[in-house]
Write a structure and sequence with these properties.
about 250 residues; alpha/beta; 60s Ribosomal Protein L30, Chain: A; Alpha/beta knot; 2 domains; seven-stranded parallel sheet; five-stranded mixed sheet; about 35% helix; elongated
Length: about 250
C-alpha cells in the first residue's frame, strides 16, 4: 500500500528536498533525485537501483516497482519537493553507482570544468548515442547527479560509466589502457580532428569559457582542433563534444 504524505515536515519530504538541492548530501547518501515517467521507465529498463517513488495525487501501478517504497502527495506538497515547475511526476530516487576505475575501456571522453549542468547531461547523452561508454570528469564540472544534469542525459546516466578523477590520475588511467590522451584546444599546434584516428583514445573537452587548463594540456599526448570558418566564435562544450564524439565513433 502506498503511504500518503501530507506535511512538509515529513522526513521523506525533507529528504527528497535535500537530495534535489544539496550535492554534498547526495554524495553522502549515495542517492539522487529524478523526475518523470520517461526517466522512470529508463531506470527500470536499465536496471538502476531505485530507493523510492513519490507520486503526484494518485499512485500508478507500474511493473518493476513492487519492492520499491512508494508514496503519494497532494499537488501542492509534490510541487514543493519537485525541482521542476508544474511537473506531472513522479519523483523517484536512484542509487549512485560505485565508480570502478580499474575496468578496461577502449575510448573515453573527458570533461574538465564543464560547469553548465545542461551541457554535462547532453554530453553524457551524446556519448551514449555514439557508443562511448566511459566519461571522465575532472575539476569543477557540474554535478551529473543534480536534477537538471541527470534529466538532460535522457537516461544515459543509468548506463554510462562515470569516473571522477584528478587530471594526473586520468592521464595515468589512459596510459594503463594503452590510449593516447588528446586535448581539444584552439592552438597553433593542434591537429585537425579529421586527420586523427580516435577509435582508441581519450579526448578532453574544456570549460565553456576557458577551455582546458594548462595542467591538463601539459599531460596530453597531443592537441586537436575542430576547423571552423575564419572569424567564428568557439563552439560551446556540448557542441564541440558532440563533434568529437562523432569522430570517435566514425
Amino acid at each position: 500500500m502506498n503511504q500518503r504524505l501530507t506535511s512538509r515536515k515529513n522526513p521523506v519530504i525533507q529528504r527528497l528536498r535535500a537530495l534535489s538541492a544539496d550535492g554534498a548530501f547526495r554524495r553522502a547518501e549515495g542517492e539522487y533525485l529524478l523526475d518523470g515517467h520517461k526517466l522512470l521507465r529508463e531506470a527500470l529498463d536499465k536496471g538502476a537501483a531505485l530507493r523510492c517513488v513519490l507520486w503526484k495525487e494518485t499512485a500508478q501501478d507500474w511493473p518493476g516497482l513492487e519492492d520499491v517504497p512508494q508514496y503519494v502527495a497532494p499537488a501542492d506538497l509534490f510541487d514543493y519537493v519537485s525541482p521542476m515547475k508544474n511537473s506531472p511526476g513522479p519523483l523517484f530516487t536512484a542509487v549512485i553507482p560505485a565508480e570502478e576505475p580499474g575496468l578496461r575501456f577502449d575510448q573515453a571522453i573527458l570533461l574538465e570544468n564543464v560547469q553548465d549542468p545542461g551541457n554535462v547531461g547532453t554530453l553524457l547523452r551524446t556519448a551514449a548515442a555514439m557508443g562511448v561508454k566511459t566519461v571522465i570528469l575532472c575539476g569543477a564540472c557540474a554535478d551529473v547527479y543534480s536534477p537538471k544534469a541527470a534529466r538532460a542525459t535522457m537516461g544515459a546516466v543509468f548506463s554510462e560509466r562515470l569516473l571522477h578523477l584528478e587530471p594526473a590520475a586520468a592521464r595515468a588511467l589512459a596510459k594503463e589502457n594503452g590510449l593516447p590522451l588528446y586535448g581539444a584546444a584552439l592552438s597553433g599546434r593542434a591537429a585537425d580532428i579529421r586527420t586523427l584516428d580516435l577509435k582508441r583514445a581519450v579526448v578532453a573537452i574544456g570549460s565553456e569559457g576557458r577551455g582546458l587548463s594548462e595542467e591538463l594540456l601539459s599531460l596530453c599526448d597531443g592537441e586537436l582542433i575542430i576547423p571552423m570558418a575564419p572569424g567564428s566564435e568557439s563552439l560551446n562544450a556540448a557542441l564541440a563534444g558532440a563533434i568529437v564524439l562523432w569522430e570517435m565513433a566514425r
